[in-house]
Amino acid sequence: MKLMSHLTEFEIASLLDKQLHPTKLQEVERHLADCALCSAAVAESYHLIKLPSTIPPPSLSSAARRRAEQLVKREKSVFHVSGLFSSQYKLAFALLLVGIIAGVWYFIPRDSEPIIFRSPVSAQAPTLIMPLDGSVVNIHVTEFRWSHIPDAASYDFSMYNEHDSLIWRQSSDMPSLMIPDSVSLQMEKRYFWEVKAMLSDGTQLPSDQASFIYTE
After folding, report:
1. What count of Cα atoms within 13 Å lies in the side-chain half-sphere of residue 196?
2. Run of H or E residues at 130
3. Considering only CA atoms, which of 184, 199, 74 is closest in space to residue 125?
4. Could you report the per-residue pLDDT of 12-46, keeping only the tens digit for each?
């Protein structure tokens, strides 16, 4: 027996309009019982044309009817699952949006925490000019010099002996100092000195430490 190919649109329309010859109708029903694709096409066409309630659906065999019902249920389940996934995506997007808004709100300054704009701090610390690190200082040369820092309100000068004990500390508005007579240095001893630039906002910029040997 020759196998029937898939139903044409004309055959589906004739089936729905009950215009098929009884012999052809039996052939179509046998085909629909074994062909899921044509069964789905018939079911879809039936729902699309929206038959009036007074016109009953096409007469199908029990096997063809079961196949069509299974396909309709399968399509409904697929639509239901896709709807669930769509709802999950909407919920995830909503949670992400809430997180972004909360993060932005957290970093917005509050009225109780005003923004304080500080003057830019120079990254440059004082450079010790004289005496040079490791040099020998004569007793007749007792002046210390360092580089000027434009933002400095004053300078804090400190001198230490070999035991890291502070022996002289002095504040200066100028980038230089003279050793006073009240400070007694021992001959052939090494001393260390450093300077801190004191900015108006309280920032301190310390220099490197340099050493010298005091001699005649």
Report:
1. 13
2. strand 128-130
3. 199
4. 888 887 888 888 888 888 888 888 888 888 887 77
SS3 of residue 153 by DSSP: strand
Helix (H) or strand (E) run with residue 62 in it: helix 62-107
For residue 134, is it left (φ>0), alpha (ψ between -120 and 50) or beta?
left
Per the CB < 8 A criterion, the answer to whether 159 and 166 are in contact is yes
Confidence of residue 198 (pLDDT cuts 50, 70, 90): very high
**CATH fold group of domain 128-215:** Immunoglobulin-like (2.60.40)
Residue pair 109/187 in contact (Cβ under 8 Å)? The answer is: no
d(CA 123, CA 150): 11
- Say if residue 140 is exposed, middle or buried (CB neighbours under 10 Å; 0-12, 13-18, 19+): exposed
The token pair that represents 56 in the structure block: 């009953």
Q: What is the model's pLDDT at position 106?
A: 66
Burial of 185 (0-12, 13-18, 19+ CB in 10 A): middle
Q: Closest Cα partner for 177 from 136, 213, 126?
A: 126
Which residue is associated with the tokens 């649109």?
A: 9
The pLDDT value given to residue 4: 61
